[in-house]
Amino acid sequence: MCRTDQAAPGPDEEQDVDATNAAFTALLEDSAEELYEQAPCGYLSTLTDGTIAKINTTLLDWLGLERSQVVGRMRFTDLLTVGGKLYHETHFAPMLQMHGEISGIALDIKAAGKQRMPVLVTSKVKTSDEGEPLLIRTTVFDARDRRAYEVELLRGRQAAEEAQREAEAARREAEADRERLQEALAVLQQNLLPAQLPAVPGLDAASYYHTASPDLLGGDFYDLFPLDTGRWAFFLGDVCGKGPQAAAVTSLTRYTLRAAALHDPAPVTVLTTLNTVLHERYSSGDARYCTAIFGTLEPGSDHVEVHLASGGHPSALIQRADGSADYLPTPGGMLIGVLPEVQFTDARTRLLPGDTLLLYTDGLTEARTGPDRQLYGEDALHTFTTGLPPAGPQALITSLTKLLTGFGDGLDDDTALLALGVPALPTAE
């Protein structure tokens, strides 16, 4: 036979059992009346017309009233605020009559000191065995903490909505500022370029400017302007950097080239003067430099003589009337503004009817193409130009504009184009 031995309880365990038994004994000694009167919520019973027949001490304390003032003298609606009375008549009472009970309805009662006290009310109709309504039992819970929490939530929501409105207003203001800035930059950029190219007797001209970023001033520039009788000057270049500082260098460069050309239009002399001005202006601080081609045009009876020099700039490209294309090399040209003493190489050519001289900045040849993002390069430009019919400056610029557009995001630098050509002779019918 198996036997399980159980150890006798120790002194501490006996004390715990005694204390627990004492607590239950004290609880069981509470009378039902005391539990009703001192409950942590309000209780009241009303007749079907709302007259209060019974009410506990907890609710009386909240109301600040004596039992004799309430029982048999007041209706449930008399305990409510004006808004609570309206809601009771329009919603609470009809729903209670229809369903026999209603739970968790938020109302306000008139508490002691004429204070509004938020409560949650639950009511249930007591009926006879025949189903006739006898009275209404109602429980009232203090909802002040809940209402304060709801108010805090509402305040937080309102604060969040206000913050959202302020953020939206700030975003709209930022967009407006951005638009105004872009307009100002566009106007400034236009002032750094000729509004339109002048009409040159015996010569066609076309240009194009691509801005890589609408938020930054570009450093590319070009111009075409008259010198003395019968001669014209042109230039195209690229200032290092972007933004207002680059724009300042661009402005200084353009006006220096124009002024130097009017004094002595020899291309090497003009670029040398520009180098001196830029080096003296920026050598003591943030170094600034540029590349540029400057040249002169002297129209003849059936041709245009071109004399140009380059300072660190890509070579000009000539599209001939017979469909061929060749670069006009200017080797040894140094960057403009870096050193106090520089050397520039000049070159000469003659444009015949149907020939076009193309000047461009390196945004074109340094564009990234293909899946490997390779540089477009001068060889590709030569091939592209050779494949075009020689139809004059405007046709060439239009084709190159489409080419630039096709680069998409591979074109990440500003690009300036300037094409000068002699009109082709009319074909015999």
Question: Would you write up a description of this structure?
Answer:
The protein has 429 residues and is an alpha+beta fold. Helix content is 39%, strand content 27%. The protein contains 11 helices and 17 strands. The chain has helices at 11-28, 32-37, 57-63, 67-70, 82-99, 144-191, 243-263, 267-282, 362-365, 377-386, 393-406, and strands at residues 42-46, 52-55, 101-111, 115-127, 133-142, 204-210, 220-226, 232-239, 290-299, 304-311, 316-319, 325-328, 345-351, 356-360, 368-369, 374-375, 415-421. The chain has a 5-stranded antiparallel sheet with strand order 2-1-5-4-3, sandwiched between helices. It has a 5-stranded antiparallel sheet with strand order 6-17-14-11-12. The chain is rod-shaped, with a radius of gyration of 47 Å. The N and C termini lie far apart (135 Å). The model has no long low-confidence stretch (mean pLDDT 87).
Summed up:
By secondary structure, the chain is of the alpha+beta class. It has helices at residues 11-28, 32-37, 57-63, 67-70, 82-99, 144-191, 243-263, 267-282, 362-365, 377-386, 393-406, and strands at residues 42-46, 52-55, 101-111, 115-127, 133-142, 204-210, 220-226, 232-239, 290-299, 304-311, 316-319, 325-328, 345-351, 356-360, 368-369, 374-375, 415-421.
